[in-house]
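quick one, 178 residues, struct below
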Amino acid sequence: MKALSIVVERLAWVSVLIGGIGLLISMILGVADVIGSYFNHPVAGAYEFTESTMVLVVFGGLTYAQIKRKHIRVELLYTHVRPRLQSTMDIIAGLAAITFILLLLWQGINEAQYSLEIDEATSGLIRFPLYPARFALVFGASLFCLQLILDLVEDIQRLAQNRGGREEDLMPVDADNL
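---
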């Protein structure tokens, strides 16, 4: 299990890196397009490239954010309930997330296959194929789902051991109020 976690973390880091590089290139193309438009020479394909690259940026970072447990969550009740209930809440949230991502993944695979079959591309001055972005979505969603499953196993283990949320997620206890 630990070896799988290491592989997933490395793949997530590579995905974030590729997404970051794509974002940087998109930013440069966007600036060049704006400046070029000012002089009546916009950059052809800047919009289409940026559109496809956003899939890398979003789905490249999902898994890494999950590994660090940095997704937004509401903790109005979470920090004020007992450890078993915290673990139960984590398990329910994990199952809901896995269900949603599996549905997204199912449709993403269908769309990626269809896009490849018909050689789908953008309609613009430069035709960008759309299937690489669709397969990037499938890869990112698959990696994210795998990390969610690993976290679910960890949450179930914490429930069995009567422990609450991860120590780094819990608020520090004030020694004066004990």
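The chain has four helices and no strands.
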